[in-house]
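Q: Could you fold this chain for me?
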Amino acid sequence: MGKTVLLSDIHLGSSGDIDLLRRPEFREVLWAALEEVDEVVLLGDIVELRDTPLSTAIDAARPFFDELGAVIGDARIVVIPGNHDHHFLDEWLERRRMDDAGRLGLEQRIPADSGPLAELARGLGRAQVELAYPGLWLRPGVYATHGHYLDRHLTVPSFERLAVAAVERVLGGPREATVDKPGEQGDPGSATPDDYERVQAPLYAFLFTLAQSGSLGERLGGANPSARVWQAVGGGYGRAARIRGRLLGTVALPGAVGVANRLGLGPVKSDLSPGAISRAGLVAIGGVVRRLGIEADHVIFGHTHRRGPMRSELGWRLEDGTRLWNTGSWIHTPWLLGRTAADSPYWPGTIIVLEDDRDPRALNLLEDRDRDGLRGGR
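A: Sure. Below is the predicted structure, expressed as structure tokens.
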């Protein structure tokens, strides 16, 4: 079966200079890990298409793709779009609607022969590149998806979570319930990828369109609009800690959460401790796995930027035994970092490696860096 390497949430082209793989010294670390690879899976949010106009983002991403092609030779590259690069799918989705192609399944393979990804693929040399959506079966029993569908079930009041709920209210139809614990029952039933696309894709299209008129990232707070929440609650240093203290007071945040719930945008909760945020993400992706009927031994996802399971964790398992793996991110968010990689779930630089029929394994390629080393020449 060969060797497959997965990474996600690179956000090439982000405003604020947070995308580490735009810098040659970090690309070199990744290239060394891709020696003798048979397949590279770029698991979503690879190019940041919600900060700046499309041409600017593509130009920023081009060096990464050109060098990737030179490193891996004739190996395969599969791009699985996420919420920030969902625009890669627009032409294909439009053709499906015109052809009345029926429902989306768990895996569609799509030629990268047109659109922005085709433009980037020109620099890949002999490498074979294609799209897959909403996920990809890597091996029997191993499924990978970006993970953005989990926003529909999240109890953290992030921008994306509340915006998806607002779209759902506007469109009407039955609401999706959330659950509080991984083992909890009470799911409303099965769902299809089309059910998620119906309420989430309009938001992605809207944010992409806004970005074409200028720097949306500067107005909404960086590569990920949700980062304003993470910045406020995730850090323990300096200004971030002071913001967190204010937000977690007894008035502002609980009041805002109460309003969101009364407006029907929840249920969301005011507990934004790091542990609560991590648990909420795992519960939400578990809800996606159950609703979509993903029968797998291992599910690999990204989106939350929370890598794991870390060495100090026993493993992430759903009630049916499915093991969860998260590819973390490759962006520099100092307000989320602990003192070292060992105590920071949000330390950038994670890849997931699959070799032959062995279980996935997570590696952090930047764990030898300190906080100043990630900052570099900033």
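A (continued): The longest helix spans residues 54-72.
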